[in-house]
Amino acid sequence: MLDGRGSVKRRLGARLWLSGAWLGLMAVLALLAPWISPHDPLAQDLFAGRLPPFWVTGADPAYFLGTDSLGRDVLTRILYGARIAFSVALVAGLATALVGSLLGLLAGYMRGWVDVAISRLVEIWMAFPPVLFAILLIAVMGTGLTSIIIAIVVIDWTRFCRVVRAEAMNQSAMDYVSSAIVAGRPRRDILCREILPNVLPTIVALLTLEMGIAVIVEAILSFVNLSISTDAPTWGGMIAEGRTSIHQAWWVLAFPLGVLFLTVLSFSQFGEGLKDRFDPVLR
Amino acid sequence: MTAFLTVTNLSAALHGYEQRVLRSVSFSIDTGEVLGLVGESGAGKSMIGKAILGILPSAIEIIEGEILLDGQDLEKMKPADRRRLIGATAALIPQDPLTALNPSRRIEPQITNRLVDILGWTKADARVRALELLNEVHIDNPERVMASYPHELSGGMRQRVLIASAFAANPKLVIADEPTTALDVTVQKQILRLIRELQARHATAMVFVTHDLGVVSKICQRLSVLYGGKIVENSSVAEFFDGPKHAYSRALLAATPKYTDPEASLLPVDEAVIEAAAAEVLAADREWRHGG
Description:
The complex is a heterodimer.
Chain A: H1 14-36, H2 74-110, H3 112-126, H4 130-141, H5 145-172, H6 175-182, H7 187-223, H8 235-244, H9 251-278
Helix pairs in contact in A: 1-2, 1-9, 2-3, 2-5, 2-7, 3-5, 4-5, 5-7, 6-7, 7-8, 7-9, 8-9
Chain B: E1 5-14, E2 20-29, E3 34-38, H1 45-53, E4 60-69, E5 72-73, H2 79-89, E6 90-93, H3 107-118, H4 123-136, H5 142-146, H6 155-166, E7 173-177, H7 185-202, E8 205-209, H8 213-219, E9 222-227, E10 230-236, H9 237-242, H10 247-254, H11 262-265, H12 271-291
Parallel strand pairs in B: 3-8, 3-9, 6-7, 7-8
Antiparallel strand pairs in B: 1-2, 1-4, 4-5, 9-10
């Protein structure tokens, strides 16, 4: 800063710290799952079924968060589930952001028939109920990680497209864009250097939000058994299994649900925090 | 000597409407001359500048008329050629310094971009030129300003940067779109002096859009008074301040606040004058429709 206040450092904020810490922890655990998990996520032990978590009497310390009705370790399955959740979040989130933002930028900056075509497409797209659309897509493409990711991209690109289009239109009306046009700079240059940098904070905020949504969509699809193979350790699948034995073994449902909740919440809070931090006007 | 910029019978309308927003506007500017465009809000002052530079909002289109810049008819040129000619010869000093610089880029590239990318300068040359320009607009610490982001500078500083940037490529025509309106009075005076200084040194032709007749008297040689998108009076500044010919111009001049007598001068323009001016605009529209 050039004024009398000297160099002002902005506090990072508890929101950014807490959500970032949780996401970082989960990401590390997901990466290291094969080495730090106490058990095999698929190994069943029918004699050790429905063991409670460690602080409840009758628990086996070897199964820290208890076991499900087939005797599989809940903690291990949560860790492996994080691998799937985070890969879906990352790949589907980035791909959605890329497709949606690109179309949104083009529509908002070029206007004219490009805008009309893209906007009509978005409106038609958004008339489909998203979850049913996803189920339909999976039914056509077959289950599997790739199908889930494609389904998320196909459904959710409109979210980016609409917001980015509006932002790009705002930016195009700014005086610095007029000046750039007067200076004779090419359109692509104006788009990349004048408009994109100012739309980027919005894209980043949306991206983290989208990652949270991707985790939820993956959980929903696993819940209705349309994710990957049925015994694969996914958070949604665990919640579906836990539901059947909620009265005998609440922990089978509660732990993956809690982790899912915190992760999705962290994604959205992290995005908001980042947006505040990188907003050039607030900075 | 032929004028550097000649605008003849320029009319513009909202896309798909017959109602004109610019009504057969004609004026010309010689090299080194400053023309003031004055009028109340919504009279179409800024729109004329935008029409010349080719940055009209997409909803407004030029329906007839001729813009001759340095002997070339802009309206008959291919869009790409037109952009190149404008880029090489003209520049804009925008109205609001707070939104005219890109908040996410440092000052240096915002001044040098045009020099490097369009005019093919080397980065080092462009940097030297930018520093020189910032000196010219009396910025004390040009190196530091070049490395700053716009939000780190005050409004007056930003307007200085914008003026420097406008004069960067030695333009032959500068359109100043109310360059002092968004600034406070003391800064206004400095900026005005600065614009006049640079304009005189570079012998730039300039269109100075403003609603402030005081400013016009300080910087312009000639002025055009606009009402409802129509020029009601073209005259030299000396003649104008001796006594405007048109009733609306007289009313506009009378409405300028005077420090000595604020009570008497802060009056609205006489209703009858406005009605007469509006009737004149409508008559011109009728005539135009019959002619075209």
